[in-house]
Specification:
16 helices, globular
Length: 276
């Protein structure tokens, strides 16, 4: 049995070679589409892919490693990627064979945390995409994908390294004032944000993901859009009672040029509300 990676460098090598697992629901939906030619098209597949952070990053990583020399522009529109590669190539080269939930047979508690992280990412992407369209952002697809992938390093660590991840949660529960990055350093030997940053660089994920980790770019509209979507999804994960939510609504209102009361209605009744 291969040795478990330890350092961040080890994990980058491991993850770079790993068959990234996808959500069971994704595998089921793709199989349904593949079996019915009336439903099978780039749009229907793109809808399934972009509801799964892991399948999205799996496809992005494949496209970056198979990029033509003439392709200068960053590819972020999943539907365009599928049209470019062809559906037959997609099913052959980016198969939904590894199932994320199967990674957790021995650690059901870790599965629950993994699923929470996935739901947060899905809701972040819904919020970010909706807001980007409302303010006519020309980079709405990059905003949506970036929100979906903001915690992809954490998801991968839950899948492949659940025991230390559970220990991090245990220590944070004992002392809620401890910064997560410090606890991660103690348990893993590196901070999750550093792994996320390096994966973004190595796998050539959307540049916006790097901007999210740069305080100097915090005021850029696209960065604010994603940051606020991720923050709202986190603060509302267990209901609408978090003390930080009024500040979130105020900042979202500034982004959308709306009254805070209308923002509250919008986020509670919009498509992302179903993620509660």
């Amino acid at each position: 049995m291969p040795q478990q990676p330890e350092s961040m460098a080890d994990w980058l090598v491991f993850l770079g070679q790993a068959d990234i697992p996808v959500l069971r629901q994704t595998a089921r939906e793709l199989e349904k589409l593949r079996a019915d030619q009336r439903l099978l098209n780039a749009s229907s597949i793109a809808n399934v892919v972009t509801d799964d952070p892991l399948m999205t990053v799996k496809l992005l990583r494949y496209m970056q490693t198979h990029k033509s020399r003439h392709q200068m522009q960053e590819l972020l529109d999943v539907k365009q990627m599928l049209l470019m590669m062809g559906l037959e190539t997609f099913f052959r080269e980016v198969p939904a064979t590894q199932i994320a939930e199967d990674q957790f047979h021995a650690h059901p508690e870790a599965l629950a945390y993994f699923q929470q992280t996935v739901r947060r990412a899905q809701r972040s992407a819904y919020y970010a995409a909706d807001w980007a369209q409302r303010i006519h952002n020309l980079h709405a697809e990059e905003v949506k994908v970036s929100a979906l992938l903001t915690h992809v390093a954490e998801m991968l660590m839950w899948c492949f390294n659940p025991v230390p991840m559970l220990e991090i949660r245990r220590r944070q529960a004992l002392d809620k004032t401890r910064r997560s990055g410090n606890v991660q350093l103690q348990v893993l030997g590196f901070a999750g944000i550093d792994l996320q940053r390096q994966l973004t660089i190595d796998w050539q994920l959307p540049e916006l993901l790097l901007s999210l980790m740069d305080p100097e770019q915090a005021k850029l509209p696209q960065v604010r859009n994603v940051t606020l979507a991720v923050r709202l999804a986190r603060h509302s994960a267990h209901g609408w009672h978090d003390a930080a939510l009024p500040d979130d609504f105020h900042e979202i209102a500034e982004l959308l040029h709306m009254e805070p009361s209308k923002v509250i209605t919008l986020v509670k009744t919009g498509s992302a509300a179903v993620r509660h």
